[in-house]
Amino acid sequence: MASPRLLRTSLLAALSAVLVASAAVGPARAGQPDVPAAAVTFSDTFDGPAGAAVDASKWQIETGDNVNNHERQYYTSGNKNAALDGQGHLVITARRENPANYQCWYGTCQYTSARLNTAGKSTAQYGHVEARLKVPRGQGMWPAFWMLGTPVNWPDSGEIDIMENVGFEPSTVHGTIHGPGYSGSGGIGAACSLPGGQAFADAFHTFAVDWAPDSLTWSVDGNVYQRRTPADLGGGQWVFNKPFFLLLNLAVGGHWPGDPDGSTVFPQQLVVDHVSVTTGAGATAPRTVG
Question: Known catalytic residues?
Answer without folding.
Answer: 159, 164
